[in-house]
Amino acid sequence: MNIINLKVNIKASVKSWVWAIPFSILLNGCATITDSVNALLGNAEVVKKIPEKGDRWLNTESRWKNWDTGHPNNQLVAWSYQEHALITKLSASNDLNTFSQRPHTLAIKVIQLSDVSGLKTLLQTTGGIRAVLSEATEMIPNAVYSDLVILAPKQVQTLVSARQQDAKFVAIISGFAELNVLTSVKVIMIPVITEPQEAPKVEKSLIDILTLGFFADEQPELPDIVRPAIVNLDIKFGESGISAFVATAL
């Protein structure tokens, strides 16, 4: 048998198989028709594994739970300006910043930075912490933006801030009367979120349905969306230091 005849025979066999499908479905009854069509159209129930969204800060380990800091996707992130990307809730206890047996107001600075190596050097001493609290943003190493808040006992304030261009870190500096380096400061990195993109759903042709998609073109895989996270901070301030720190990212 020559190649031409072989191609003709294969084509004829495929055609006869394609047109045999509807008749075999009809022979099996209406219920089978419904089930078959649903399966062919993709309407059958499919259990999909939904990826875990978001992240949370582990205080005891000083890291994000899910974020892989060494992942190659981190190099693809554009650290651009984004509105409403940093939400900070500041809550004061009744005995906030107690000295001389009385509670007092507390100065808190929320700083966005592109790098924290210089800041960490300053934060090693109580004098450095006081300097950061009193200095303008441009005088703090690698700071791109800061908010200064005066928090009163029993007060709750929420800051909704834009993440600034090139901001990769957030630092919380609190000016307690009895400064303790370990309980007056928190510094975290803004994590990276990777979200898979789903290809747009393509309407199936009659041939695709009848051939179970055997001759359909494969859809190209879309690249993941890689972006800086939106960070939520919930911080409680007590008698002489930060009493609770919760950070989540979406």
Q: Main attributes?
A:
elongated; alpha+beta; Immunoglobulin-like; 2 domains; single chain; 250 residues; 4-stranded antiparallel β-sheet; 6 helices
List the helices and strands and how they pair.
Elements (H helix, E strand, L loop, with lengths): L2 H25 L2 H12 L13 E4 L4 E2 L17 E11 L13 E8 L3 H6 L3 H9 L8 E9 L4 E8 L5 E6 L6 H4 E5 L2 E4 L10 H5 L14 E4 L2 E7 L4 E8 L1
Parallel strand pairs: 3-11
Antiparallel strand pairs: 1-2, 1-12, 3-6, 4-5, 4-7, 7-8, 9-10, 11-12
CATH architecture of the largest domain: Sandwich
Portion in beta strands: 25-35%
Distance between the termini: 64 Å
- The CATH H-level superfamily of the largest domain is Type VI secretion system, lipoprotein SciN
Biggest sheet character: 6 strands, mixed
The count of domains is 2
General description of the model:
With 250 residues, the protein is of the alpha+beta class. It has 2 domains: 3-42; 55-194 and 227-249, Sandwich (Immunoglobulin-like). The chain has helices spanning 3-27, 30-41, 117-122, 126-134, 181-184, 206-210; strands spanning 55-58, 63-64, 82-92, 106-113, 143-151, 156-163, 169-174, 185-189, 192-195, 225-228, 231-237, 242-249. The chain has a 6-stranded mixed sheet, with no helix packed on it. Residues 14-51 have low confidence and may be disordered.
